[in-house]
UniProtKB/TrEMBL annotation:
The protein, known as: D-xylose 1-dehydrogenase (NADP(+), D-xylono-1,5-lactone-forming)
Keywords (A to Z) from UniProt: Oxidoreductase
Top-rank taxon: Eukaryota
GO molecular-function term, one example from the UniProt record: nucleotide binding
Organism: Podospora fimiseda
Annotated ranges, domain Gfo/Idh/MocA-like oxidoreductase N-terminal: 10-137
Keyword Oxidoreductase: yes
Length: 394
């Protein structure tokens, strides 16, 4: 019989930026508010490469328990014996070195998207997790949304017949005068030293929908990596990709995925959803339209030949913890990680290691075709504990 005591997973937070704060607040929400009763999360330590004070401020800001430890370096966090799993929330440039630091110290890891800068780095992390028998997962939170689960079920149950095409867009209109993009050149969105660019930051979500609908749902023995054709415009100021369009062809399945991303135009110009579905999953007998944003979808429509203009929008709301007045939707991926740690699973079935590798290979290939390159210090697949990416020396 299942135990009625929830399993507690103890988290260490590596970095104190925007998403670290959002994710940690989700960890601190009451799981019962999303009807989860088998696991619970504890935030036991937070680390900042900038200063210990920054970690202290973070803990106060998110209203974590007063017992939460504050560290002024990533090294102290990965050595903490009370931490079960580390959430890596640095810019993508840092993920490889930071996640390796944690894995080498024997810690399970949930690492933000995009998982790494190159596919070779992803392979190295997975080899290390496998060799050390540790849990490792790419934090693509969208995959764990109840809406994503429902859409995958609709596809595998044949609700739209054979799925032949998916078109997915995540673009944010930050066009500025004189050819500029409305981010400071040093911002991680456009700074190649931080692996900036539309594809690694936003395009990953368009690819997530292509992969959820055309690859993940393929039977295991029929899995087929796609051919890739990419067009990329680079930002004249920094060399990062500003508009990237990828066609993914799955020849055996006769299907195409079209993944779009841009910093110049928006997939939702009025931020009201007026522009229509951000994602269209098209099958032989109908289509599923998902309302964006692609990273935090809000509803779907199932349109079939029988819909006769009456297809209804099925909305999904993200539960809030009334006590904290908070709920962003990142808790579902945290719940998945906690259950995997509890059950001794090293990878998530919803985003297996092999799939993360294929997705990184697609992004590698697209960037290669577009001539985008990143500095050696962030693209090397040689682990260096003393890398500036680990010490925080900027
Ligand atoms: N899942 C999601 O919805 C989202 C995911 N992300 C992903 O999370 C990651 C972080 O993004 P975000 O939180 O927006 O970024 P921020 O710039 O807000 O935070 C990044 C943090 O990383 C640490 N850091 C270490 N070295 C550097 C450096 N050289 N430059 C900047 N920061 C550094 C800092 O923390 P400290 O000083 O404490 O070490 C900093 O606060 C990215 O990979 C991004 O793709 C981002 C937004 C949404
Ligand atoms: O992951 C993300 O989702 C939300 C976006 O605003 C952000 O740039 C990106 O990193």
């Amino acid at each position: 019989m299942a135990s009625s005591t929830p399993y507690t997973v103890r988290w260490g937070i590596l970095a104190t930026g925007w998403i670290a704060e959002t994710f940690t607040k989700d960890l601190l929400t009451n799981p019962a508010t999303r009807d989860v009763h088998d696991i619970r999360h504890e935030v036991v330590a937070v680390s900042s490469s900038s200063s210990q004070q920054r970690a202290v401020d973070f803990i106060n800001n998110v209203k974590a328990p007063s017992t939460t430890k504050a560290y002024g370096s990533y090294y102290e966090l990965v050595a903490d014996q009370d931490v079960d799993i580390i959430y890596v929330a640095t810019p993508h440039s840092h993920h490889f070195q930071n996640a390796m630091l944690a894995l080498e110290a024997g810690k399970n890891v949930l690492c933000e998207k995009s998982l790494t800068v190159t596919a070779a780095q992803t392979r190295k992390l997975i080899e290390t997790a496998r060799a050390k028998n540790l849990f490792f997962m790419e934090a693509v939170w969208t995959r764990y949304f109840p809406l994503s689960i429902k859409v995958r079920e609709l596809i595998t149950s044949g609700a739209i017949g054979n799925v032949y095409r998916t078109i997915a867009d995540l673009s944010i209109g930050r066009d500025a005068p004189e050819g500029k993009i409305d981010f400071p050149d040093s911002n991680r969105m456009v700074n190649t030293e931080l692996a900036g660019g539309a594809l690694l930051d936003l395009g990953i979500y368009a690819l997530t929908w292509v992969f959820q609908s055309l690859y993940h749902t393929q039977p295991e023995d029929e899995k087929e990596a796609p051919n890739v054709i990419a067009a990329i415009n680079t930002y004249q100021v920094t060399g990062a990709d500003e508009t990237t369009s990828i066609i993914l062809q799955f020849p055996k399945h006769k299907s195409h995925g079209i993944a779009l991303t841009s910093l110049r135009v928006s997939s939702d110009p009025d931020e009201q959803g007026t522009a229509g579905a951000a994602i269209r999953i098209q099958g032989s007998s109908g289509e599923i339209q998902v309302l964006g944003p692609a990273y935090r979808p809000t509803g779907y429509k199932l349109i079939t030949r029988d819909s006769a203009g009456k297809a209804e929008l099925v909305e999904f709301t993200i539960p809030k913890d009334p006590e904290r007045d908070w709920g962003h939707g990142m808790f579902w991926e945290a719940d998945e990680a906690a259950r995997c740690v509890r059950d001794g699973q090293k990878e998530s079935k919803t985003l297996p290691w092999s799939e993360s590798i294929v997705i990184m290979e697609v992004m590698d290939e697209a960037l290669r075709q577009g001539g985008v390159t990143y500095p050696e210090v962030i693209s090397t697949d040689v682990f260096d504990p003393q890398s500036p990416l680990n010490t925080g020396k900027r």
